[in-house]
Specification:
With about 150 residues, the chain is mostly helical. The protein has one domain. It is built from six helices and no strands. The radius of gyration is 19 Å and the shape is globular.
Length: about 150
């Protein structure tokens, strides 16, 4: 079912990304050394950034469904999308955590880090793209083999 999006959908997504990136740069969270200091329990400024984001998100998720029953730009009804907590979630979270700890940056902040002049972060971005590609390839191969095995029965 294809649904028509509001004409301001993509421009607002772009503006939201700019605000997010500016906030990461302004709070110095786009600097890997700040994140690594947090992970080594030397600088707890990242906690204030995360708590601030959690408070704003929590308010938005609590208030928006009471104001309107549908999202303003997509027209889709508000609802929770539950994902099962399984092995894939644990393994993916562990891999993400190791990558975050090694590079000191997560994917969103990596792009903002480019904006503040950290060109060496391109290595981490390349690793993220290669990892995502390999995971997609592995998953498609696994799905194909499961389909072939089911067809052989």
């Amino acid at each position: 079912m294809s649904q028509q999006r509001h004409p301001l959908f993509m421009p607002l997504i772009f503006v939201g990304g700019l605000i997010f990136g500016f906030g990461l740069g302004f709070s110095h969270m786009a600097r890997p050394e700040i994140v690594l200091n947090f992970l080594q329990f030397e600088d707890f400024g990242l906690l204030f950034v995360m708590f601030g984001a959690a408070i704003v998100s929590g308010i938005a998720f609590a208030v928006m469904p009471r104001i309107s029953d549908r999202a303003p730009l997509t027209g889709r009804p508000y609802g929770r999308r539950l994902k099962s907590f399984d092995r894939n979630v644990l393994v993916g979270g562990a891999i993400f955590g190791v990558g975050w700890g090694l590079s000191g940056i997560c994917p969103g902040a990596a792009y903002a880090s480019l904006g503040v002049g950290n060109v060496t972060i391109l290595w981490a971005l390349a690793g993220m793209f290669v990892g995502a590609y390999l995971q997609g390839y592995w998953r498609s191969q696994r799905a194909a083999s499961e389909t072939a095995a089911a067809g052989a029965d």
